[in-house]
Amino acid sequence: MSDKIVSLRGGKFTIPEETEEQLVPDPDVVEMVEDMLSAAKAGKLVGLAGVAVYHDDSICQYHMGACISYEVLGMLYVLPMKLGVQLAEDEDDD
Description:
Blueprint (H helix, E strand, L loop, with lengths): L26 H15 L5 E7 L5 E7 L4 H24 L1
Antiparallel strand pairs: 1-2
């Protein structure tokens, strides 16, 4: 596929080989995303709002679908407290 990609100046673009260590998926994250995908495909999950953290520590926020409600805002209000408790517990373990 990379043989069809060209640079802005028309030269051939090659995808560099991965030089970092091999990424290892988090099984809990994979399971949650797969469960959410199954629910979405079944029409049961109709909206999402959240934050995603990538392997390089970059972070994105997202919201889509039917997620504009006071219930969603309430859950998003509680989330920082839950994350703070988890962070404090993790620091105590160190």
